[in-house]
Amino acid sequence: MVRKKTPSTADERILTPRQLEILTMIRDGRRRDGYSPTLQEMADELGISKITVFEHVEALIEKGLVTRSTNRARSLEVTGQAQFPDERPTRMALAGRIAAGSPIEAIENPETLDLEEVFSSRHPVRALQVVGDSMIDEHIREGDVVVYEQRSNARNGDTVVALVDGQEATLKKFFREKNRIRLQPANPKYQPIYARDVAIQGVVIGVIRRL
Q: Looking at domain 10-85, does it have CATH number 3.40.30.10?
């Protein structure tokens, strides 16, 4: 008896663009009609042969992303292991533009905004919730969430997550001066922090605010 392999790592579930298309068609067909499209219907829509669709479906079954009932037509089902780019929680509809100054004609241009792509970086990305108002003139308020790249280098003027003297973490503007570092608040109520021992934890690349 031949046993099908059970995928043991995420890498084994990496899909080709065509496999993702077929997986999405199966999902959408079941949502819309209550049953999956046939192999021939998928082949016709994609402009490929039925045998090619069959091979892709077999690969999806092998990866544990699709199941099929024996001797039942239109029985393909997507398993809970399947993940779709258009279902990431970071994705939302970008409906168009709206004026915040003089009124303009409402323009609808349906697109998709993906926060994961907006804040993408070659460095690891992390987030911290802000406590205090020392960065208010940089439009960073208490309760906001700052998104930052984890890296240890910064340029003058960057807003950074910094560790001062190995113990105090703070969010400030970074400036390198002669023989010292200046961490500048963006609120006239607060004085700059001057230090020699400053470890940059990351550089801010965005702010998220819940109203």
A: no
